[in-house]
Amino acid sequence: MSTDLDLGYAPEVQKLVDKAHGLIPLLRANAARGEEDRGIVAESADALRDAGFFRMSVPKSLGGDELDIRTQTAVIAAVGRGDASAGWLVSITGAAETLSSLVSAEGAKEMFGASPDVYVCANGGHHGATATRADGGYRVSGRFPTISGCEIGDWMILAVVPVVADGEPTGELISMAAPPKDGRIDRTWYVAGMQATGSHTVEYDGLFVPDSRVIKHEITPQGSLTNFPSLETFAAVAHRSIASLVGAVHGALDIVRATLDKGKPLIDTTYGTSLDSPVARQWLGEATHLVDTSYQHMLTASDIYDAARAAGSMSREERTRARRHGVSALEAARQALMRILDLGGTGGFASASPLQRYWRDFEVGSHHIHFNKFVAFEDYSRALLGTEEPVSVIH
């Protein structure tokens, strides 16, 4: 039986979700090889690009689809249902929307003019790189770690790079857009899960970046940066990645439900099959409901971000509420996954089983710093009381 859920998507959203569902067999077939290679299989990356999933956040003025957050998260979850790493990589392209709005029109045309179906990866601002002024631009040198999708990337955001002259900081800060393949990719990504994201290190040695693809920042009296994504934009970009993990747990439910429907035995009991046990049936019902619940939290947060985009602003209370719903989506998904693993039994932990990959991918991805649940809870509580400043500086 199907584990599809009635999530109430609008027909145009459901059409895109169905397109993503059509890729699930391919994504699952390539997932083990992607993990072994520590990077997404080219066939899967090409299929995602051909489906238009790399252009979802690119502005219409640049030939993209400029979809709302609800639609993007629905599609990303459907991709993650096939392979969590693939869903994560699609979510990363959300940075394209921010980047194209900050670089010059000339730079945006250079990046997206030939095709909006480009893959844009980014660093989070944590690096040891520096830039020096050159005629008509800057030269950048240094290492940028954990760049998801750098091996399939057409462009990369080099965020918040300090400018130096004669080895000394000038006080200037810039961000740039450059092709990751113009640098050296050091394959440093060794983790317990999400291996196929290929989040390796990119190193540049004096790469020239023209002024057209340079964004200059100033530090405001409040300590924030000018010409940088707003907190709500940054939070919405991070929220997209949650969808890949919600989808991964749905994928795990698919796997276990299929084995149960085929008569999976409940060894060393009087039951002929697992589903003969009323408690196993209850476990399945709880797991399915928790997956549904995780989607509801995810979509509620998506709607909050979309409302803020339409309004042109987002209050602290709205931002912390949206982030709390995102974290709650992951918590419900984790509870579902525990039930799913119980139903799958020890066979689900065999290296050949896709179930253990969904489990490892979910645990690694959901422990990303952007999804820190006690920080999200503390900021939410502080916002409710309105008595203290938020703990997080980027959400």
Throw out a few tags for this protein.
395 residues, four-stranded mixed sheet, four-stranded antiparallel sheet, 49% helix
The largest sheet is:
4 strands, mixed
Helix content: 40-55%
Poorly predicted parts: none
Count of β-strands: 8
Mean pLDDT over the residues: 93
Q: Name the structural class.
A: alpha+beta
CA radius of gyration is: 22 Å
State the shape.
globular
**Distance linking N and C termini:** 40 Å
What is the helix/strand order? HHHHHHHEEEEEEEEHHHHH
Strand content: 5-15%
Structure description:
Strand 2 and strand 3 form a beta hairpin. The protein starts with 10 loop residues before the first helix and ends in a 10-residue tail after the last helix. The strands form two sheets. A four-stranded mixed β-sheet has the order 1-4-5-8. The chain has a four-stranded antiparallel β-sheet with strand order 2-3-7-6, with no helix packed on it. The relative contact order is 0.12. The chain is built from twelve helices and eight strands. By secondary structure, it is an alpha+beta fold. Helix 8 packs parallel to helix 10, helix 9 runs antiparallel to helix 10 and helix 10 packs antiparallel against helix 12.
